[in-house]
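Q: How would the structure tokens look for this protein?
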Amino acid sequence: MTSRSFEEAAGAFLDHVRVERGLSAATVRAYGADLRAFDRSRSIARWAAGPEAALEHLAACAAGGDGRALRPTSLRRRAATLRSFYRFAYAEGLTRVDVATRLDLPRGSRLLPDTLTVDEVVRLLEAVDTSGPDGVRDRALLELLYAAGLRVSEPLGLDLEDLSLDGGFVRVVGKGDRERLVPIGDEAIAWLGRYLAEVRPALLEMGRAGTVRGGPVFIGDRGRRLGRQRAWEAIRAAAARAGLAERVSPHTLRHSFATHLLEGGADLRVVQELLGHASISTTQLYTHVTGERVREIYARAHPRAR
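A: Here is the predicted structure in token form.
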């Protein structure tokens, strides 16, 4: 089969994951990028003959033969994409060989998420300049990120109907369109209440954000739904003022949320539900983080630790 036949098979696979499996647009784009990279490989003409084409491509990705070597996490994602694609191709009769069974995922490196201590989180939140309306909005956003352990994109997709300050919870639709209800604490409720009462109405009056389902919770300076770049700028600015710039990434508050819950005795399954993880193994990474911290505390505090 030719590269053209691969393009058709790849297109059918992307339609399948988008329509039938209902994967998010970001995931479909990532699959598409991985498959286009495979289509550019030297072995693509043999893609349907057996596992050799995929294995050669992955080996080149690891060694940097097709350009810069992929990081272990990126290589694992590329392999997972090809395995999903080949599983689909075999089920649809596009290949006679079940290539997916011959593609092993590279062992994932256990990268520990960078987390902040409770005191550092407080420093970060209090570093937001709330003297103006933008700052009040940014403080409400950061408080919600930490209070509910949200991915940065999740609060930006919230509409007013998703938020219940009286009930103390937020309805979130995360990866894979999985819905979850997450409680939020008094501090986040207070800042959200102030933002909704004092700042949001003026932004909403600009009329560009729409009012479906109450309109977006977080609105940017031009009256549209707040964008990812602006949200990340707010986090970065607060981190710089708090002296934490090198420690903070878009996921830092989410990682800190999970770690602090587990350190406080929360059940792992509860944390999994709050984070919206499909698999408990993803959440288990945080047990290793807290284990490292327990050892540090033991080494400092026990009289015969050294």
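The longest strand covers residues 169-173.

The first helix runs from residue 3 to 20.

Upvote if useful.
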